[in-house]
Amino acid sequence: MITLTIDGKMMDVAPGTTVLEAALAHGIDIPRLCYHPELAPSGGCRLCLVEIEGRPTPQPSCGVRCAEHMVVHTQSDQLTRLRRDTIDLFVSDHPLRCVVCDKNGACDLQRYAYQYGIAETSYEFELSRSLYQEDNPFFVRDHQYCILCAKCVRVCDEVVGANAIDLVGRGFTSHVATPFDGPMVNSSCVFCGSCVQVCPTAALLPVSRLGKGREWELERTRTICGYCGVGCGIEYALKGGTILYAQGYREAPVNGEFLCVKGRFGWDFATHPDRLTQPLVRRALLEDKGQQTEDAEGSSALGPAADFVPVSWETALDLVATRLAAVVQAHGSDAVAGLASARCTNEENYLFQKLLRASLGTNNVDHCARLCHASSVTGLGMAFGSGAMTNPIRDIRDADCILITGSNTAESHPVISYEVVRAVKKGAHLIIIDPRRVPLVDHATLFLQPKPGTDGFIFLAMAHVILREGWADTAFIETRTEGFEAFAQSVEQYTPEVAALASGVPAEHIEQAARYYALGERANGALTSPVMRGRSTILYAMGITQRHNGTELVLTLSNLAMLCGHLGKPSTGVNPLRGQSNVQGACDMGALPNVLPGYQPVSDAAARYTVAQAWESADLPTTPGLTVVEMMHAAVARNVRAMYIMGENPMLSDPNITQVEVALRALDFLVVQDIFLSETAQLAHVVFPAASSLEKDGTFTNTERRVQLLAPVLPPPGAAHADWQILCALGEQLDAKFGHQRRTEDRGATAGRSARRWDYASTAAIMDEVARVTPIYGGIRHARLAGHGVVWPCTSADHPGTPILHTQTFTRGRGMFHAVAAQGPAEQPDAAFPLILTTGRILYHYHTGTMTRRSEGLTWRESRGYAEIHEQDAAAAGIRDGGPVLITSRRGQIRTQARVGQRVPPGTVFLSFHWKEAPANLLTQDFALDPLAKIPEYKVCAVRLERPRSGAHGKPLPLSGEKTA
Amino acid sequence: MRTTIRVGVSTCGLAAGAEAVCSAIETYLHRRQLPVTLQRTGCLGACHREPLVEVMVDGASTLYGPVTPERVTPILDQHFGAGGRGIAADWVVSRRPDKQDYPFLARQVQITTQLCGVIDPSSLDHYLAHSGYEAFRAALRLPPEAIVQIVTEARLRGRGGAGYPTGLKWEHTRQQPGTPKFIICNADEGDPGAFMDRTMIEGDPHRLLEGMLIAAHAIGATQGYIYVRAEYPLAVKALRRAITQAQEYGVIGRNILGSGLDFTLTIKEGAGAFVCGEETALIHSIEGARGMPRLRPPYPSAQGLWGYPTNINNVETYCSVPSIILNGPGWFAGLGTARSGGTKAFALTGAIANSGLVEVPIGMTLRELIVDIGGGCQSGRTFKAVQLGGPSGGCIPTDLLDTRIDYEDLHATGAIMGSGGMVVVDDTTCMVDFTRFFLTFTQDESCGKCLPCRVGTRKMLGFLTRITHGQADQTDLDRLLHLCETVRLGSLCGLGQTAPNPVLTTMRYFKDEYLAHIADKRCPAHVCPLDDGRTMAAASGSNGRVALGTKHTAAVPGPEERQV
């Protein structure tokens, strides 16, 4: 510690602390306009000057590090004079139109002008720039208010890594601009709005708030973002019940003040007129009421949305309970299946699987985690014992080497990419292994671009090199792991040359990657510690998991981490980045066919007993149920007769959706619970209108296992209800229907008991029950979650949570090496289908687009789907950039727009799956499931490209042509 | 008979018409089929006598200037024909090989410029013939710390202007852990009226390379950059050629001269921003970012280019090094004062009789330099002041002309050593208007990062403009001085911190001129367009004689070592 004196106050601070940080930490306020705790000091505003004894001139406290015995004065006549003059100069180039300014009351310059009594400039007023730019629907740039603190420029560079803006010009005419002062959309801007967030004046303002209210008139609610799995804290500012803008807040544990474009600007879907406000029932069904589903073939002849009739909740719930009970009675419990939702809360997913298991008696419950990270849950479970991110997101910024593979982090998890950018700015190595040139490659120090489906060879060859060069952490292997010998033997054949031949990546690059990763080398050469290896972390996502051998690939990455001992320490680990706001939680809650809450196997009698007790059930089904894709296959085979789908849209998200449509149409009864009439809901018999995440409380568990509390920002529209309320109501109805039955079947202890198991006072009460039956959530109560949330495992009320897994021992005891062989993709390109299709997300849209395509700004930025095609392939097929293209696989054909370039390598086509007009999953295959995780191989299938003859529109979706968005 | 004719074809020579003179000489030689070598050299420094032609016959030498194409025949006839002796005598500058009969050169001590105007800068052989790369070979035999020790003992200080001890700077970088390390040469000469770097690079580029190589060995750097302004096309060309030659010769590349050392050298052309002479801005510019200074510490020696330890010196500093190695630190230190060793080059311009590049021992007085070497003011005018250090520097009046040229002594006057720009001002110049020129330059070249510099210099210029227009009162003058203090104390980098210097020194020595503008609405030099309409005719003309130029046309040095 360093001891210094500021304004007569002695204080101890850590080495490296700046004078400004020390002062602020000890309650001494120093005026400042360009300082931001997350940005490198700039020293441009000159307001934070202080006097340091022994130095002839005042020093910027933001840039001077504390030194032993330093004596600092933050107040003096000279400093006051300098600060007054500085503010005077600022306002000579800044109109003091505070009374009509949206930032009135929240403007830093206004605050200091007030503090130092500067009512107007004493110099000649001269505006350096008066340009007003409103070239996008997200924010305006009003240059007259810009004070050139350059926080916007720095946040764009240092945190976001977009480098869309910079200072331009010299002297007095310096200003912030995009390249050549063009519109934002022509720059590299990602519209995250971080610049708006950090702007101290009204130079950058969200469009949504312009002229609608002053700061002190706004109410604020903090909740967790409903989009991806990062779990950003967002503060919504409202006036009169209307959201004026959203922003990050410094205390948010994951993201601080920073958000992505979807989080900051994509909230307007919640008030879109398309929102479902009443339960809907198919007209034919109402007329048929009381008939057995077998006879109701006509009701499956589904037509357009106009066939739906709004009904009361009583009618809808009664109908659903009756129909589901009828199916169970006629065909058994396992003729019902349910899809829970990664976008609903923990409490809701818990109730959903409880409803399926306890009320309907089936383990046929799954959700879209099956389609994204099932292989992580399986693979990491086999290797370590816990199928989740091992380390916190905030750790990433301090890593020495980051290996990203199969993750387009900057578009799918933008706020995590900010952590990566920060690490790289500090000198970390960034290795990216991806068939696509994803945006983060701009920041990479090493980019390996394998042919799709061949990355496994590279990971194995890296292990080979690490062993060959003696870079393995033998002590870690010896004391913490098992199965090493077989593994070591298995990688002997995978030399870098073998991998180079298979993947097309030069052997030299594979060796470099092995070295950087194994030793945790930094790109700037500075070792954090001369004796120990650096900290290396692996981030991966669906490029690894959505593969027919996804589990094996996850095991391979786990092997690498264990081999180098990069586990159980800060800034290391194996980290699957999960895609939806509560996909981690939905898994944790047991919305999976083989496990009860907390990953307790359904075959485990003891666990089943505990849960059954809490659920007031006699017993629970013992055999694992069907997974998502298996459910669809079973529906086609008429083994599954009814489905309950909560907040999922398999008609766009599942592979081979032609088959999905056949499956859903084959059902006798389909209930869909959603916030919009999704493509799937359009096939339903009954639709329940649900509340969005902006309209409910409960908890989400983010990708780093942090359980965080939601708060309602808006009321649900019309008669829509939170999913947990719908589930409780339905659960009661089902119990009522089955109550009689159970008695007659003499199901033992529960017979005749009045069911209280659906009677919860609040979501907090649901979580209390979760904690009772879920050991890893044992200590989690809503009351504990305010602020930072809690990271599971948290087994008791006094357990602090576990941000880093496997610190002393692995969850399963010793970490398990698995010998794995490399495999190519299941569907190889051939003469008829010579190219490889790979699928994913884009920044501006989310999943099947139900929310983002109803956001005005997001749709403005990206309004239609497109295919990324390499220029060689485009030229061969006669396809031009921006022109139409037909893409055909063995399963279907779509027509979309071509984006020709070099982002994909030759022979590869990329499609995002957000677009109902050109659904990528019409092409993907569902036959090659990972044998363990049952995940389909979305990432690789064979296709061909054609230039469409006029009039060819691809195979239309059954319901396309209906207006949404 | 061994005969060589040298013509100076640096930027200054070419501007004066040296190319036409060369053509005339070639025509003359061709016509007579004379076995004479025409050698194109750099600038000898005597820019006021350009174009210069030196005829060397069997060890005898005659230097002529200014030479026009018409004068070529009469001059060469004296040596090769039957032309009447004496016709060309008026054009003779010197008749001795050592030029000791030419006062402009006789009083100089040329170390960094010793081969300028002597060798053909495009010829590596010429450089080698004058002990070229011998210092580097000697240095390779020494351990790095011994080289640092020699440079320290030589009392070499940064010639960019701030005068930081070079040995100490090298030692800082040498001791940094981590690799790679970089060295950078700051050749972003930006001060109005300065052309030291340009002359040295155009006239003797290998000297700079050799100095950098010695520094690289001393520091442990494996990569070097020369940041040179793009407005110096001849210098850039000379450097490119020299680097290629050095690579072929084997002093740049891998395993240099079998020593195991690797060194690469890259040229980075600046894009016309004055502030890129500031070392942290220069580093940003090399990195591809906008050239803006950043807070120091960390200094470049700890975190420089791409975050690696980096040593930055200017051209003259590196060019001093080979001679120090060859002649020993004692010799170099002995040339200067107790605080600073060696020599300093100055670009002598303005209302001076003998304009040009001069190199003098540190410790010489300003009077010796301006009067004895420079020949005083141009005919008929009275010396008024000399401006040192460009827009960061200050004016020194007549009664301080006996000040010694030394970092500390010059600083005491309110001026600075600077990088070597020296503009002489006579009685036709208005000091307020002169100051206003520098502020125009500074506020134009401010990078915009910090407020006092960006807006403060703008307002300072506003006050000065009001004064020169006769619109100011005493309050304005007080407020100007107050603002000078804010800008000096408040600015982030040297550009802003020193921007008030021209105002402060002229207020110190020429306050009466300010008061005349304010109280009497009168411009004593009859230059300013005062509001009462008494605009001095030809004011702009007389003022324009001081070849100040702009950033794009003037020859100008970087304030490399400005302190923040």
List the helices and strands and how they pair.
The complex is a heterodimer of chains A (965) and B (564).
Chain A: E1 2-6, E2 9-13, H1 19-25, E3 49-52, E4 59-60, E5 71-73, H2 77-91, H3 108-115, E6 132-133, E7 139-142, H4 151-160, E8 166-168, E9 175-177, H5 194-198, E10 204-206, E11 219-224, E12 233-239, E13 242-247, H6 261-265, E14 280-282, H7 283-288, H8 297-300, E15 308-310, H9 313-331, E16 336-339, H10 346-359, E17 365-366, H11 369-372, H12 374-383, E18 401-405, H13 409-412, H14 414-425, E19 429-433, E20 446-448, H15 455-468, H16 474-480, E21 481-482, H17 484-490, H18 496-503, H19 507-519, E22 536-540, H20 542-545, H21 550-564, E23 574-576, H22 583-588, E24 595-596, E25 600-601, H23 605-614, H24 628-636, E26 642-646, H25 650-653, H26 657-666, E27 669-674, E28 686-689, E29 698-701, E30 706-710, H27 723-745, H28 763-773, H29 782-785, E31 790-791, E32 815-816, E33 835-840, H30 856-861, E34 866-870, H31 871-877, E35 884-889, E36 893-901, E37 908-912, E38 941-946
Parallel strand pairs in A: 1-5, 16-17, 16-26, 18-19, 18-22, 19-20, 21-32, 22-23, 26-27, 27-28, 33-37, 34-36
Antiparallel strand pairs in A: 1-2, 3-4, 3-5, 6-7, 7-10, 8-9, 11-12, 12-13, 14-15, 14-28, 24-25, 29-30, 30-31, 33-38, 34-37, 35-36, 35-38
Helix pairs in contact in A: 9-27, 10-27, 10-28, 12-21, 15-18, 15-19, 15-21, 18-19, 24-26
Chain B: E1 3-8, H1 11-15, H2 18-32, E2 37-41, E3 53-57, E4 60-64, H3 69-80, E5 92-94, H4 103-106, H5 124-129, H6 134-140, H7 144-153, H8 166-175, E6 182-187, H9 196-203, H10 205-219, E7 223-229, H11 233-249, E8 264-270, H12 279-286, E9 310-314, H13 315-327, H14 329-335, E10 343-350, E11 356-361, H15 366-373, E12 383-388, E13 394-397, H16 407-412, E14 421-426, H17 431-445, H18 451-468, H19 474-490, H20 494-498, H21 501-509, H22 511-519, H23 539-544
Parallel strand pairs in B: 1-2, 6-7, 6-9, 7-8, 10-14
Antiparallel strand pairs in B: 1-3, 3-4, 4-5, 10-11, 12-13, 12-14
Helix pairs in contact in B: 2-3, 6-10, 6-13, 7-8, 7-10, 9-10, 9-11, 10-13, 13-14, 17-18, 18-19
